[in-house]
Amino acid sequence: MYRYDDYDQQLVDERVAQFTDQTRRYFAGELTEEEFLPLRLQNGIYIQRHAPMLRLAIPYGNLRADQVRMYGHIARTYDRGYGHFTTRHNMQFNWCELEKMPEILAKLATVQLHAIQTSGNCIRNTSTDPFAGVAEDERIDPRPWCELIRQWSTFHPEFAYLPRKFKIAVNGAEEDRAVIRCHDIGLELIKNDAGETGFRIFVGGGLGRTPIIGEEIASFVPWQHLLTYCESILRVYNRFGRRDNKFKARIKIIVKSLGIDEFRRRVEADWAHFKDGPSTLTQQELDRVAACFVDPDYKTLPKTDAGYVQAQADSKPFAAWVKRNVRGHKRPGYASVVLSLKKTGVPPGDVTDAQLDLIADLADRYSFGEVRITHEQNVVLADVEQSALFALWEQARAGGLATPNIGLLTDMICCPGGDFCSLANAKSIPIAEAVQRRFDDLDYLHDIGELELNISGCMNACGHHHVGHIGILGVDKNGEEWYQITIGGRQGNLTHLGKVIGPSFAAADVPDVIETLVNTYVAHRHEGERFIDTVHRIGADPFKQAVYGDKTPAQRKVANG
Amino acid sequence: MAKLIKNQQILDDTWQVLTPEDGADAATVAVPAGQWIVPLAVWQAQPALAARGDVAPLLEGADDPADLADQLGTLSLVAVNFPRFADGRGYSIATLLRSRYGYTGELRAIGDVLRDQFNYFTRCGFDALQPPVDKYTDAQLGAALASLKDFTDPYQASATFRDPLFRRHARHAA
Predict the structure, then answer these.
(1) What is the 8-class DSSP label of residue B98?
(2) Which residues of A fall within a CB distance of 8 Å from B165?
(3) Nearest CA distance, B53 vs chain A (angstrom)
(4) Which of A100, A332, B79, B101 has the greatest CB tally within 10 Å of its CB?
């Protein structure tokens, strides 16, 4: 992991001092609500339904065990004993008092944690592959680049008051696990024919109200020019992006209205003047940062651990967990483990203080003291010896972290929804729970196979419903909560936006509809075919027919067709 | 009298901002004697103003700083308006004036100029900051000077830090 030097630490400490004074002036009446708003937002603080929410940054998803313990401490001391991992490498606390925020941020800063730019119209936390550095299909480790972007984007003076929020994601593997084409800037690390590292750059992707897949703005930008090129994109956006309508203010709207060719022309005209300028990255700086991401001290192990194989034969529950929650690793004898935060009855992504302590302990015991957070709201221990997996599983299971459902229907992505979020049109957590209860039978769940179900409580799409194999979107109809269903969306290299199947449903009907969709898949699937592949092979009509039959929308209770 | 923060000091300021009536013809708007900051359209429509020496152009967010590029060598003041503090276009305009077009005269932020943005203003190249009249008491404005120094050693290159942190200091792997 990246290790702060004195300059990094000083900046975080100065941020705490700055915000402490801003909060003081706010309570003294020297700052209006309007003036304080972007200041608190850029320190991660929303005013939500119950209390202020604090959103903390987990830079590109990486955490040390002592940082996870600090989360546990914050949850116990200032919250109600739990926190929530979001879909963009953030941790959210829902019950902290505004007056206590400076104190909380000061404590977090002691372990290099912060809430910098986790909200507001600025460059947000960069996200990437949770298996960076250990994935078998990795071309180039994205983490040093994410760290360079973190530093460049932190307190960038030119881009703190953009038209709207701005999100960057980086992928360095064959399979895109960072949804880069649904980000304002998506960066794909590649090598050119000469073997030099650079970036294929996508711009203007995003979900939300107007879901758009990002377009390629540059096929290869040499790595030295990454920051100046991104600055030129941001500068064109900052100058010409729409500020008259919040819903049309994301970069995707101006990329669409200008067209990618004109947008590119403006960016490259600007870049011509800044390329090779002082912000050009140096080999020395790259080397300094990359030195923090070298392999840990791996042992030389046999490719397969005999005890591990035997334990799977002896224990069916352990084997089921291995099948779903353990991934291959580039080093012989090692594996990556996904700890599931998708236990039925617990809101997806929620984690208690005791679980946070346990995660930290497991990381220290089995995975070099580091953890990663996935955008699917689970926790990864990236470097575990195969011989330790059984012991790890027993402890994780005792702590409620070993539900064997990664990649299955109940491993759903879900935003906090109307239970917590003041933007939401509808609740999402009870929908997730109702669906999880319907599919709680593990044999059935495993038979259905890989199926990504994503739920958002409003069109801002924090739950990434557009790219779920099945997506559920909460909508408001005359003050009532309704749910619109999409199918056929997917993330990854073949990122695709799902299509709405028809009129929306009342909450109580949602589990039936999901079950009907699943049954339709089971009836049509070929041997070994996943839900998403069946949908793309046979099209949406058989699914619509199964759900709606011959009934017209008027005969069902429907809304917001 | 309006206050101006310049070189980390609070000064009285004698410049006035000319706001033509809606629909006024930029070519015929009268610019009285005295020091006036005028809209870019007026500045462009009345080339004689440049010779006066006591008139300066004002850029709005939608204006293109390239329009001043040929004159920047002779200008002693350029102002950029922030209609709302959350409208950040002026930061890019300042960056372009300083870094791309090489402007070295006074660059003044006017409009909704608040202390919590002072640090970002100056780093983008504003060396003169003019908060709204009556926004701050003298004591508050004095205290606000501290905000200029919110961050000692920022990561980025900008108008005031020619080099990014990694070129300014030898950083060692921790």
Answers:
(1) I
(2) 7, 151
(3) 29
(4) B79
Q: What 3-state DSSP class applies to A168? A: strand
Q: Are residues A39 and A16 in the same domain?
A: yes
Task: Give residues 56 to 75 of B whose Cβ lies within 8 Å of A.
Answer: 61
Angle, vertex CA B138, rays to CA B133 and CA B143, nearest 5: 115
Partner-chain residue, chosen from A155, A158, A285, that has the shortest CB–CB distance to B166: A285
Asked if A166 and A237 count as a contact pair (C-beta separation under 8 A), the reply is yes
Domain of A468? 413-555
In Å, how far is B104's CA from the nearest CA of chain A? 18
pLDDT by residue (tens digit) across A188-247?
999 999 999 999 999 999 988 888 999 999 999 999 999 999 999 999 999 999 999 999
Q: Is A7 on the interface with B (CB under 8 A)?
A: yes
Same domain, yes or no: A63 and A174: no
CA distances from B18 to A120, B57, B126 (A): 33, 10, 20
Structure tokens at A514: 């999901």
**Does residue A116 lie within any of the structural domains?**
no
Rounded Cα gap, residues A475 and A34, in angstroms: 28
ipTM: 0.97
Q: Is B120 on the interface with A (CB under 8 A)?
A: yes
**Domain ranges, residue B78:** 3-168
Instruction: Please work out, in degrees rounded to the nearest 5, the angle formed at the alpha carbon of residue A483 by the alpha carbons of A480 and A487.
Output: 170
Count up the domains in chain A and report the number: 4
Residue B108 CA to residue B122 CA, distance in Å, equals 10
Q: pLDDT of A406-454, one tens digit each?
A: 999 999 999 999 988 888 999 999 999 999 999 999 899 999 999 999 9
CA distance A285 to chain B (A): 6
* Stretch 138-157 of chain A: residues touching chain B, C-beta under 8 Å: 151-152, 154-157
Using the beta-carbon criterion (under 8 Å), do B165 and A161 form an inter-chain contact? no
Residue A471's DSSP bridge partners are: A454, A486
Asked if the Cβ–Cβ distance from B152 to A10 is below 8 Å, we say yes
Beta-carbon pairs below 8 A across chains A and B: 115
